[in-house]
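Today's session is about reading a structure prediction critically. Students often jump straight to the picture, but the first step is always the sequence itself: look for stretches that repeat, for charged clusters, for runs of hydrophobic residues. Only then move on to the predicted structure, which in these notes is written as discrete structure tokens rather than atom positions. Here is the chain we will use throughout the hour.
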Amino acid sequence: METVNKVYEIRIPWDNQKEYWWNELCADIVEVFGLPGDRYTSHPFSDYMLFYFKSKKDFHLCQILVSDKI
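Below is the predicted structure for this chain, in token form.
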């Protein structure tokens, strides 16, 4: 039997945000979850940035963390 790991996705739109806004948002995420790799990965796109979390707990915590910023 093959085990498939579920990934939880958070999409944060750029929406013409200022540079400092993104710096603060990314700093908050790194401060709580560490650098990308162990607990999450991130991928920028032209209109948004995706954060993929490996655990449901971290996914929900990040939703709360960024909820006042987006």
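Discussion point for the tutorial: Strands lie at 8-13, 40-44, 48-53.
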